[in-house]
Write a structure and sequence with these properties.
Layout: H1 2-25, H2 27-44, H3 56-77, H4 82-105, H5 107-112, H6 118-122, H7 124-140, H8 142-149, H9 161-173, H10 180-207
Helix pairs in contact: 1-2, 2-3, 3-4, 4-7, 4-8, 4-10, 7-9, 9-10
Length: 209
């Protein structure tokens, strides 16, 4: 009963926050909200949860990157610039990398129970390549973002490049099993640090002459 009451309160809060935003920005915000709800339900629910298919990383890339970053920019400014899209791609790639670690850790279990995750379908080596490409791609996108905005402060995430290099090396060399948990936590920390630095760089670019 308490859980149901809390859920109702959360729903009411979401509606209270969402309705003014929809009124201000129109149907795109409503579409984003509905798509996010459907994706959340389909990810672990239904006859064929997305989490147990090869498309898990792609869905995370879309909703934790493109939708989260570009959608936030649209809500606040009513527009989405090229730099925002690049930042959205970068953060989506890092979010997908985190899920890649999770799926790589569970590859043998998932295979044994019939879950067709990306590593199960395409192989462990391909999954490792995807992880590396996601990490390095996010840092490569810092350069065009800084160039487009004419702001060196947007290069701030490059401070974490040595961390990303070590993380990728450790991921590739990691033994099977629970040892991947430490890699997963480090990947989340890298994503959080990247987001903080790119945000700080964007704010600094606006404030500095």
């Amino acid at each position: 009963q308490a859980a149901g009451s809390l859920n109702n309160q959360n729903n009411a809060l979401a509606i209270a926050i969402g309705l003014p935003v929809v009124a201000a920005r129109g149907w795109p915000v409503l579409a984003i909200g509905l798509a996010s709800i459907i994706a959340a339900l389909a990810y672990m629910g239904g006859p064929r949860p997305i989490a147990y298919t090869p498309f898990g990383e792609f869905v995370v890339f879309v909703f934790f990157g493109l939708v989260a970053v570009a959608g936030s920019d649209f809500i606040q400014t009513g527009d989405i610039g090229v730099t925002t899209w690049l930042a959205a791609i970068a953060l989506g790639a890092l979010a997908a990398a985190a899920l890649a670690v999770n799926n790589h850790r569970d590859i043998e279990h998932d295979r044994s129970v019939g879950r067709r995750t990306f590593p199960v379908v395409f192989g462990a080596q391909t999954a490792k390549h995807m992880y590396s490409a996601s990490l390095y791609g996010a840092f490569a996108l810092v350069l065009p973002m800084a160039w487009l905005e004419g702001a060196a402060t947007l290069l701030a995430p490059l401070l974490l490049l040595p961390t990303a290099l070590r993380l990728n090396r450790d991921f590739v060399a990691c033994p099977p099993g629970l040892a991947y948990n430490a890699i997963l936590v480090r990947t989340f920390k890298l994503e959080l640090g990247y987001a903080a630095l790119i945000s700080a760089g964007a704010v600094a670019a606006r404030l500095l002459p």
